[in-house]
Write a structure and sequence with these properties.
Blueprint: E1 2-8, H1 16-27, E2 31-37, H2 43-52, E3 55-60, H3 65-71, E4 74-75, H4 77-82, E5 87-90, E6 101-104, H5 107-117, E7 126-130, H6 134-137, H7 140-145, E8 150-155, H8 158-167, E9 174-178, E10 186-191, E11 209-217, H9 226-233, E12 237-239, H10 242-257, H11 263-273
Parallel strand pairs: 1-2, 1-3, 4-6, 7-8, 7-10, 8-9, 10-11, 11-12
Antiparallel strand pairs: 3-5, 5-6
Helix pairs in contact: 1-10, 5-10, 10-11
Length: 274
């Protein structure tokens, strides 16, 4: 049985062990997947210890994604862009004598796949992304690869959004600024700020949404987030980030096991358990 885990701090509430157990059941892959709370000052040591105990790969969540990036020997192009890694793979070429540490990031693919599941067309759409932290940096490349008409990044600290837009400018039509500079309407608005965690709502104009627009919150919970409640009151369809969580997990599972699990039943079970 090959061992995998998710590293985080805290990590006790992670749904990843349940998700990967369901994927393993479904595909018949014999894997053991646990949650490990790495010490804040020694993520690299925790990873080395895990490898020594037979670990083959790991997911990485807050606050270790940048540190995981730094310890990789080989990085995927999308991880290089994101500056962060959520998937570590030991022996990325699948040969048992390859013990290099490969790093990839599957968050952005997860978001785009979940949007597809909900029938959202990104090609030609006007996109607004709220926030300019690590979560947003990790999803911009696949969003731009889907060829939207335009992508605006808006953030409380305008300079961070401007810098992010400059970093990704070679990939498509992208602009950055503060919340006060937002001028809609938009077809898809993605909340990638951590404001929902605190029950806060970024200051947004009332005429944000085009007809038939989708509001997506990377956060999720048993109840709609404040952002999704606000969006529903303005006629937008709301989608939370639970599907993104399951899709990024499926992409990691694929990187490790070269098998694609069916995400729908796993997502439905998680939703019922929220
Ligand atoms: P993450 O890994 O979740 O992206 P992060 O890198 O700390 O975490 O980024 C958090 C993001 O949420 C930032 O864009 C932050 O805005 P600032 O760059 O101005 O700090 C945004 N954010 C956090 N709390 C917020 C709030 N109450 N209102 C609006 N934006 C908020």
């Amino acid at each position: 049985t090959d061992r995998y885990c998710v590293f985080g701090h805290p990590v006790g509430h992670s749904k990843s062990p349940a998700i990967h157990a369901a994927f393993a059941d479904q595909t018949g892959e014999a894997i053991d997947y646990t949650a490990i709370e790495a010490p804040l000052d020694d993520f690299a040591g925790a990873w080395r210890a895990f490898i020594a105990a037979g670990g083959r790969g790991a997911n990485v969540t807050v606050p270790f994604k940048e540190e995981a990036f730094r310890l990789c020997e080989v990085l995927s192009p999308r991880a290089l862009r994101a500056g962060a890694v959520n998937t570590l793979i030991l022996g990325g070429n699948g040969q048992s004598n390859d013990l290099k540490v490969y790093g990839d990031t599957t968050d952005g693919v997860g978001l785009v796949r979940d949007l597809e599941r909900h029938g959202v067309t990104l090609a030609g759409a006007r996109l607004l992304v709220l926030g300019a932290g690590g979560a947003v940096r990790g999803v911009l490349e696949p969003l731009l690869a889907a060829a939207p008409a335009s992508l605006v990044v808006a953030n409380r600290t305008a300079e961070k959004a401007e810098a992010l837009a400059a970093d990704f400018a070679d990939l498509g039509e992208i602009r950055g600024g503060g919340f006060d500079a937002i001028s809609g309407p938009f077809d898809v608005v993605i909340n990638g700020t951590s404001a929902s965690l605190a029950g806060d709502l970024p200051p947004l104009p009332d005429d944000l949404f085009a007809d038939g627009a989708t509001a997506y919150d990377m956060m999720y919970g048993a109840e709609p987030t404040v952002f999704l409640q606000w969006a529903a009151e303005r006629g937008a369809r709301g989608v939370d980030g639970l599907g993104m969580l399951v899709e990024q997990a499926a992409e990691s599972f694929f990187l490790w096991r070269h098998r694609r699990p069916d995400t729908d039943p796993v997502l439905e079970a998680l939703r019922r358990a929220l």
